[in-house]
Amino acid sequence: MPRITPLLALCLASGLAACAAQPNAGRQMVASANGTIPPMQVTAPTDPTDPLEATNRRVLDFNFTVDDAAIRPAAVFYRNSVGSWTRTRIRNVLNNLNEPAVAANSLLQGRPLESAQTVLRFVFNSTAGLGGMFDLEQFGGPPRLERDFGQTLYRWGLPDGPYLMVPVLGPSNPRELTGSVVNGFMNPISYFIPLGANLGRGAVEGLDVRERNIETLDEIRNGSLDPYARLRSLWQQHRDSELGRTTTDSLDVLDDPGAPAARR
């Protein structure tokens, strides 16, 4: 089961079903301080990395509708019905189950010491951490690393390709989409777990990250002149940080990079 990476899961609202054709194709409703202004007609890409912008915007519009109808309410219910302590234990277990894939990708990226560190982390957290429920990093255990097959392909020299808004997975590009699919098959644990359990694991992981970003997604949608451009910018910044192309680890979610484009 392909793992949902943090930013993909952050944008679960951006991709939870296939795009349906709509009469206002290529149009985006934007909000201003005084209320709603007429839809913006997208006649040309606003970013050179996004030649498929018109189609991507339609996917985002549809997925926002699906998120409003099902995903956000599920995330709110999860938050209200499951305590924070229990949610943290669930998150730790999910992270622990992915450690073998992290170790494999570290090795493929030419980082054998990091791979060994992740193996030790998996062993420690699976035993002393009671199946991964408790992360022993806080007690001096090996720190958690973020390594996936998309990063591996980048290290091997594959280019980004065009920006994509993918149904179910959200913001991506051809390299990262390939990496997301392959990453799930790299984890040996997946082959010892029934298909239903793997699907459930992916669903819970996505639900957990969606719950942690309820306010963030609400602010992006309600406080942006162009939510699409803002999501695109945030995803690209975050992925650049994970790939080592920038030294900035934090994103300013209050910044609205799409505002100038929305006013054109």
Layout of helices and strands:
Elements: H1 6-10, E1 27-32, E2 35-41, H2 53-81, H3 84-97, H4 99-108, H5 112-127, H6 149-155, E3 164-166, E4 170-172, H7 174-186, H8 195-212, H9 214-222, H10 227-243, H11 259-262
State the main characteristics.
single chain, 264 residues, mainly alpha, 4 strands, disordered C terminus
Task: Describe the protein.
By secondary structure, the chain is mainly alpha-helical. It has one domain (6-262). Helix content is 54%, strand content 7%. It contains 11 helices and 4 strands. The strands form 2 sheets. Strands 1-2 form a two-stranded antiparallel sheet. A two-stranded antiparallel ribbon has the order 3-4. Strand 3 (164-166) and strand 4 (170-172) form a beta hairpin. Helix 4 (99-108) runs antiparallel to helix 5 (112-127). It starts with 5 loop residues before the first helix and ends with a helix. Residues 1-40 and 253-264 have low confidence and may be disordered.
Brief summary of the model shown:
The chain is mainly α. Helices cover 54% and strands 7% of the residues. The strands form 2 sheets. Strands 1-2 form a two-stranded antiparallel ribbon. The chain has a two-stranded antiparallel ribbon with strand order 3-4.
Helix content: 40-55%
| Number of strand elements | 4
Number of domains: 1
Mean pLDDT: 82
Count of runs of 4 or more consecutive helical residues: 11
| Strand residue content | 5-15%
Estimate the global geometry from the Cα principal axes: globular
Instruction: Tell me the major beta sheet.
Output: 2 strands, antiparallel
Low-confidence stretches: 1-40, 253-264
Q: Spell the H/E element sequence.
A: HEEHHHHHEEHHHHH
Radius of gyration: 19 Å
**Structural classification:** mainly alpha
Distance between the termini: 42 Å
Reading side by side through the largest sheet, how are the strands ordered?
A: 1-2
